[in-house]
TrEMBL record:
Entry protein name: Putative permease
Keyword set includes Membrane: yes
InterPro entries: Glcn_transporter (IPR003474)
Pfam family, one: GntP_permease
Highest taxon above the source species: Bacteria
Amino acid sequence: MLPTSVIGLIIAVFVLIFLVLRTRVHVLIAMLIAACIAGLIGGLSVDDTMSAISSGFGGTLGGIGIVIGLGVMMGAILETSGAGESIAYHFIKWLGKKKEETALAITGYIVSIPVFVDSALIILFPIAKSLAKTSNRSILTLTVALAGGLVVAHHCIPPTPGPLGVASIFGVDIASMLGLGLLVALPSVCGIVLYARWLENHFPEYMTPPSLTNETNDLRKVHDDYMASKESKNLPSLTYSIMPIVVPILLILINSLVGLAETQFGLEGLSQSALGATIKFLGNPMVALSISTLLAIYTLTPYLDKETTTNKLEEGISTAGIILLVTGAGGALGGVLRESGAGAEIANQIAAMSISPIMIPFIIATLVRVIQGSGTVSMITAASISAPVLAEIQGVNMLFAASAATMGSLFAGYFNDSLFHIVNRLMGVTEVRKQLIIWTIPTTIAWSIGGALIMTLNLLIGTHGSWFDPVIPLLFLAGCCYFVKSQNRLRAQEVLLHKSV
């Protein structure tokens, strides 16, 4: 017989899924309803349930609410100033012709850290479109590479709201989450770039015909003309464009290194010195993001007056409202699960099974992603359900667990994902089969690579790992590779058939 706390959790999860999928109830209200059900059926009184919801909500937002608000304010300035376009232009200039997809992927990887992924793609897509015409490259390759860099960073790297919320729910240091996110995101983006190059060969109809690029077919000349047009455009310098993004990351990481030096190298009292205290202050995420927001305001938009600047900042804050509320609701659900004892009960069951604890947030995030589409909601839901469970298991590495939740939410973007529609509509792709090939496969590749890497790192340097953990994502990666090979064979057969006719 299942304990009442576990029964309450099961019913709450089914109600949550039903409300999100089959009704017009917003996910915020659905999560609060699920929290109430989990508490009341799980044996808590009405007062205890409401208290757990309030403390869980406030405790989660208390740590990261201000940071999320500052991050989106900085992102609003980056959107307005053309900083993203400036970063793309400089990377394209450095990498040269035929490396445009790599330049756009790197741009997406950097820009998506403070800027919401949907907005960033819409802002940067004209660059991909222009490069497709001037460099005779496939619009599919350039757009998928750009969107891939954007979406992976958006799912893995703070101060993006989702990873921030997950870090808070798991009680993970933001600097550690940032460092691991930067590490895991890179190979995932590389996987998408390689797939994007395959798209160029498999769908030649999306190549821009040379006759449309220049009357003389001098593609190098038109590429140079494009670069010249960007050079003459009034864009902020690369230093000013990238500084608001890099500075807070460096400050947070340096602060983390000071703490590491004290514990690992015996430098006791370092944080109490004048230098250590200064680094600790500047490296606090709230202070670091405040500094970066001020840098963005005074270096990227000196031409804006006070009223316009304030309006832009408030526009950014308005977009963060629902993210804050959903994150807080996730914390409320987690608080109820802790108080009801559901976490401890499930932890005892898991301890007797062969499944590794770190797989729980990964699998839950993956399933929720398939069900309702939003990456942020998926990772917050997975963290809310699994964090109380893992907290009852001794020695679980919460950093890897938190990263597993963020990476699980990247799985197979398709029809219920807003970015799926944005990517395909921008390129004018309407056939469903092509839409799935163009965006569902690359997000699955990134999910597979990132998931396997996290599981392998946990197996090597974490705890409670199993050699079986990386197998599931690697099987999906093998499936994607098999799909690519089968499509290559079909393409070759079509070419032979066309020649014979």
